[in-house]
Amino acid sequence: MRPSGRAPDQMRELRFEPGFTKHAEGACLVSFGETRVLVTASVEEKVPPFLRGKGQGWVTAEYGMLPRATHTRGNREAAKGKQSGRTQEIQRLIGRSLRAVVDLSKLGERQIVIDCDVIQADGGTRTASISGAWVALRIAADKLLASGALTVDPIVTQVAAVSCGIYEGTPVLDLDYIEDSSAHSDGNFVLTGDGAIVEAQLTAEGATFDEEGLLRLLRLAKIGCSDIFAAQLKAAGK
Amino acid sequence: MRPSGRAPDQMRELRFEPGFTKHAEGACLVSFGETRVLVTASVEEKVPPFLRGKGQGWVTAEYGMLPRATHTRGNREAAKGKQSGRTQEIQRLIGRSLRAVVDLSKLGERQIVIDCDVIQADGGTRTASISGAWVALRIAADKLLASGALTVDPIVTQVAAVSCGIYEGTPVLDLDYIEDSSAHSDGNFVLTGDGAIVEAQLTAEGATFDEEGLLRLLRLAKIGCSDIFAAQLKAAGK
Amino acid sequence: MRPSGRAPDQMRELRFEPGFTKHAEGACLVSFGETRVLVTASVEEKVPPFLRGKGQGWVTAEYGMLPRATHTRGNREAAKGKQSGRTQEIQRLIGRSLRAVVDLSKLGERQIVIDCDVIQADGGTRTASISGAWVALRIAADKLLASGALTVDPIVTQVAAVSCGIYEGTPVLDLDYIEDSSAHSDGNFVLTGDGAIVEAQLTAEGATFDEEGLLRLLRLAKIGCSDIFAAQLKAAGK
Amino acid sequence: MRPSGRAPDQMRELRFEPGFTKHAEGACLVSFGETRVLVTASVEEKVPPFLRGKGQGWVTAEYGMLPRATHTRGNREAAKGKQSGRTQEIQRLIGRSLRAVVDLSKLGERQIVIDCDVIQADGGTRTASISGAWVALRIAADKLLASGALTVDPIVTQVAAVSCGIYEGTPVLDLDYIEDSSAHSDGNFVLTGDGAIVEAQLTAEGATFDEEGLLRLLRLAKIGCSDIFAAQLKAAGK
Amino acid sequence: MRPSGRAPDQMRELRFEPGFTKHAEGACLVSFGETRVLVTASVEEKVPPFLRGKGQGWVTAEYGMLPRATHTRGNREAAKGKQSGRTQEIQRLIGRSLRAVVDLSKLGERQIVIDCDVIQADGGTRTASISGAWVALRIAADKLLASGALTVDPIVTQVAAVSCGIYEGTPVLDLDYIEDSSAHSDGNFVLTGDGAIVEAQLTAEGATFDEEGLLRLLRLAKIGCSDIFAAQLKAAGK
Amino acid sequence: MRPSGRAPDQMRELRFEPGFTKHAEGACLVSFGETRVLVTASVEEKVPPFLRGKGQGWVTAEYGMLPRATHTRGNREAAKGKQSGRTQEIQRLIGRSLRAVVDLSKLGERQIVIDCDVIQADGGTRTASISGAWVALRIAADKLLASGALTVDPIVTQVAAVSCGIYEGTPVLDLDYIEDSSAHSDGNFVLTGDGAIVEAQLTAEGATFDEEGLLRLLRLAKIGCSDIFAAQLKAAGK
């Protein structure tokens, strides 16, 4: 039995609150159960140096966790003077995941910066971030299309992410903090709207898994992402 | 006329949402109109090195602004690798303001860390932070009292803060972003529950003011803080 | 009785030694009693990025303390790799104070950088810095006027600063280190040549003060600044 | 056809040169074709703070690239003052991979630090690092066993890593730089001596892959790791 | 002819003003002509970690340059967040030079930190620093001897430093800024009270020199140091 | 007797392995006995800002030590976030030494960056670095000459470096780690192909030396550099 009483292939309650803050071109407060991440998409009329003059755009992401988003207070990265390896790993993953579903050549020479700030953490902050980021990005792109700044939609399809792992011997979907802390193997899958894999990251801590295990986790991920895709569309008003 | 249509001595709508996040010993989402700050109070059973073994506690504060809390995106301080002078100035002010109403000798050898993270900025983020911090601190202290960790209340009185300034020649209370951008002189007052001054900071940019102007701003601040004190008590369930 | 035997409204001995070093366009060693600060004004024929092409100038300030300017040696900020929050707060205050009396549009596209380095500290280093900075700035501007680089004087009026506080129940002027260490409430006032307020910062540590207290400190500040204004003019050869 | 003329399931020439340097308890120069990484294992009689007094050991890894290991010179991370996100991601992966095959409770309160420094890069530096690290670790553990510092072997099994990817439509093993630069999807697999998965990381850049693709890459990885396991044993003198 | 009109073996005017500041155990403002350095010696009742419990003391040095000590303003190292290679090189040299004439075993477990801050630079700041540091150290040691904290004098002999170089083909002593800028070869010699060499650093920029040239510079250095030794003794009241 | 059994004026075995790595325009693994340094010369078609548009080139150097190049592991400078003073001192010395034998005006507006990375340390890493750097530079320049990018040779003569010191009372050449650790006085000499001095750095730790001692060390250095010059030419195929 899962601590939350959920079925093995059951997601936590999903919530996408578009427009949670007002300044960003796209904004969304995403909740995977008790995990809550504020995602904003900021449109900037410039690109990073390596893309200047190439006629294409860029999508990048930054990630942060409020100091007391967690059970015990973590040190503020701004005060420590550097971002942890974990933070950098996550923000690189978010950026790659989004770029996989954006046709950068249709974006023009502009950059969309995604900020994912974890307000409250209960496992799965990176998967909630990616899933919420698509909604913020969608809203920002719609705004650019509505204003005429863009004439064709640069977003090719949806993207969502979810974690899966082996909890007490059973493959389960969307691990919360308690499950995550004791899972021997877990992974994150980033899938596109049509179920293809964009990213897969699996780690066996103190255990290992085989081909069969890998496939079972992937199948759970597909189930979870279906739910997320539906909720994303609704939140984005599609 | 103020852009918002408010009377000169009228605060923006005040909102204190205690318990906005669940992990911290005290938490509060404070809104001064469109300015929204998430404040948490974290109790740590240790004190900074300079206080070890002295039998007293400490209250300190950190402040941050989400990158897109503002009209245009600001760089993330964690990514830049340092906190700006403005950030440090504000967090020092918040810490001093709270310590002014806490009897540290009654806190035992523990530290309460206040985190103020601006979710959305529209002027007055430091005054909203101080005002919300008192609520988070009050909740955390109540929890320590309820659990028996504390037997006497270390909080001596309330503390609140509000900005005032001269907008188009008229002294006004609680400036929003538009007013703040064009005000020639403004200041922040931190007052205690009985109206005494804890901190006062006044700056005349491109103009100056005299004794009379200083007193008019102080009187507006007292009006504003009365409203805040009432709202704080209600939020803290007193 | 004050430890120094001074009357409550009596400044420490003021000394301004213009030209203490030779390379800077303006230089002054200012002493408020035993507090000594070397201030230089460096003219640079460029402006910060945010002002480029706007046809106006800029005045900014940096502040530092020699490691053994104080009773016990402090760590060198260059060795620690960052400036403290206190340092940043002070240098921002110095910069704002000077800009309040300079018409930046008359400066042309050039920047004057004020460096305030504390040689010996005995309380009031920031107020001595601001007061000395005006002299260094005045000398530098005179040099620009003499050379024809400037044709109209960009300095509108004088600016000076002084601290005041409640020492053992009595409001006193220009606190030295001993007084400063035990004062319950103190503040720094920055005033213009005609007595108007440019900046006021008051802090009540462990105590509070009221409207009446605030006004008494301000009146002391006006007395102190009168003395400083006279000494500044003499030092600048006016 | 692969640029190197290799068959799709063919590794580059593998070379492990144990004892390439003399000071470290374990050392190995590993070559995957033209990719060469110097790996050292340093035994330290202390553990990180979070493990003190817990009676167990730790294995951690650091990774670096000599500035001109690459086609064009990269900036030295020591000169830039920080390690890139990529570097941190890789060194975290190396550490996790090794810990997966070490019984830390059998290591005693000591730490083994693995340093992987890329002398020459031609694709697959992280997989060469992990594979070579096992040899350095094995040599260091043998030294501890021989000296009596350890009485039971803490290394549970072998660990090796290899990359796979889709190059011009064909799944291929152990990508070199040319292949890596143009592959649309690739991944790194870390496998144990008995073929179980310890880590899997797959990224589809500009393309995606499905379940079938994932399995084909995994099967290639198993082939590659068999070769590596054999070469590791030989190098370690088993 | 030298720009200053000095003879080739003539030092600039030497001045040592002991007690220039009051807080440090030893202090001295040293002038080599227009080069002026404030040196303080701070006694700390602790040693660096690597010497703890070894019953001996330590002498170390830090060096800094005020931003406008030079012809054009240099960036403040505290603001840049790091000390330049030049600064580190100089402070290491100062520390080694002083330790060469101190019997650390007679110092007890205490550290003397020398701070050399250049108030005005005109060539030879490192040699002035070393020469002045001996005076500050001497004063601090005398204070420790007078107070009974030390019973035997840990300072073995005097140490002084001076620069020499080939200016327009002629070997000259104690180069000022103009000479230093155009000298093809120059060096710094650190000598003890009896004329032995503690440190010698020679650099030929764009030229080279031979054995004979080396010896001629060394002989000039001996002449210069004689003058410095005499002035040091007088300043230290010996 | 020297621990290695060498004669006082005998170098360790010298080895220069050109082309040790393949990407750099010039590369060389230099060994002075057990001290091994990988040196690369990277040609970049740009110059540092202070030389832009001046029609001349630049040669600069960076130095690093692999963490376990030494007897006990040193912390990685990239992980610590800064280069030590020792590292900066050495890389500045390498750069100056090479520039002394290059006619920068013949290099065109390009920069050659020398990277010296110590693979294994046993004393004399800086002298091995300089000596090996000349070989890497020579190879890179030959490549530029062969390709027609350069038409005249910018390298004026050879440069080499070697250490000398007083070991147990006897002046010896090319100190290894054991000798270096106990030598009371030592120095590094950088000489040109015709025996002239480019740099000389001598330090007497706990002892001093006189004119005669200085000359004896210099004469040893000339002997050592003769050997190095011959080996360099052979390695560079001259």
UniProtKB/TrEMBL annotation, chains A, B, C, D, E, F:
One annotated GO biological process: rRNA catabolic process
Pfam families given in the database record: RNase_PH, RNase_PH_C
E.C. number(s) listed in UniProt: 2.7.7.56
UniProt KW Secreted keyword: no
One annotated GO molecular function: tRNA nucleotidyltransferase activity
Residues the entry annotates as binding phosphate: 86, 124-126
SUPFAM superfamilies: Ribonuclease PH domain 2-like, Ribosomal protein S5 domain 2-like
UniProt entry keywords in alphabetical sequence: Nucleotidyltransferase, RNA-binding, rRNA processing, Transferase, tRNA processing, tRNA-binding
UniProt keyword annotation of Transferase present: yes
UniProt function note: Phosphorolytic 3'-5' exoribonuclease that plays an important role in tRNA 3'-end maturation. Removes nucleotide residues following the 3'-CCA terminus of tRNAs; can also add nucleotides to the ends of RNA molecules by using nucleoside diphosphates as substrates, but this may not be physiologically important. Probably plays a role in initiation of 16S rRNA degradation (leading to ribosome degradation) during starvation.
Oligomeric and partner information: Homohexameric ring arranged as a trimer of dimers.
HAMAP family recorded: RNase_PH
Protein name per the record: Ribonuclease PH
Organism of derivation: Sphingomonas edaphi
Lineage of the organism: Bacteria, Pseudomonadati, Pseudomonadota, Alphaproteobacteria, Sphingomonadales
Originating gene: rph
